[in-house]
Amino acid sequence: PVGQQAVLSCAGIERSFGGLKALKGVGLHVEEGEIFGLVGPNGSGKTTMVNVMTGFYPPNAGTVTLFGRDVTGMAPHRIASLGVSRTFQNLALFKGMSVLDNILLGRHTHMRPGALASLFYWVWAQREELANRRVVEEIIEFMQLEDIRDEPVEVIPIGLQKRVELARALAAEPRFLILDEPMAGMNQEEKEYIARFILDARDERDVSILIIEHHMDVVTAICDRVVVLSYGEIIAEGEPRAAIADPKVVKAYLGE
Ligand code: ADP
């Protein structure tokens, strides 16, 4: 919707790897309360774009503005502490730890190591721990993970592991959530489940969402707007159905 505050604003982003121009001047905006799709064939620059907006790669040119603040070149942990959470294309859960403990780890951006120096650390830590537990319990209920909360993550099916990853990202209580192929390796039923959780997270947890997604049915079902990349450039953008049907997009995917 017009007139809402931009959560993320990228302008003129360029990024090269050696002689390869992975991003050639990409600009995009994510508005508050939006589910925004970043799509495009393999190697089109989607992950590089996310790595630039989360501080993992500094851009060679261009600016990144988050919540109205210029964060270009800022370190990843500082960007995360502004209220940005992300999941990764490949699962990054801690094997040997339970579902509950993996989600609890998502709270680490809320723990301030500097407080260790304080005389009041112990009292503070007790309260912090309680607050963390409360948020995590609430997320476990929201994501319907009660039945497997004490299971080691490696014994549960891949679809549920992806759900745990989403729960961990939500545990940080982000204002902006970036999901890199959250449905990879899922069957139809699991995809529909995750799509529902993503919509509910936006509606009930006040989070704006950027999603990299290959499944076009998912993109048209849940995204408000999309940007389509090909070879580091925007080839279409706007309403998902129209953008995906654009002849340039059809051609880019045929060439894959
Ligand atoms: P996508 O996420 O759309 O599949 P990527 O952003 O991963 O695309 O990659 C875009 C291009 O940049 C590809 O040609 C890829 O090989 C290249 N690339 C990405 N990361 C690196 C890197 N760390 N070093 C060298 N080349 C890279």
Automatic annotation (TrEMBL):
The keyword Transport applies. The keyword Nucleotide-binding applies. Residues 8-256 form the ABC transporter domain. One of its GO terms (cellular component) is plasma membrane. GO terms for molecular function: ATP binding; ATP hydrolysis activity. Gene3D superfamilies: P-loop containing nucleotide triphosphate hydrolases. InterPro entries: AAA+_ATPase, ABC_AA/LPS_Transport, ABC_transporter-like_ATP-bd, BCA_ABC_TP_C, P-loop_NTPase. Signal peptide: none annotated. It comes from the Bacteria. Pfam families: ABC_tran (PF00005), BCA_ABC_TP_C (PF12399). Keywords: ATP-binding, Nucleotide-binding, Transport. PANTHER family: ABC TRANSPORTER ATP-BINDING PROTEIN, CONSERVED COMPONENT OF ABC TRANSPORTER FOR NATURAL AMINO ACIDS-RELATED. This is ABC transporter ATP-binding protein.
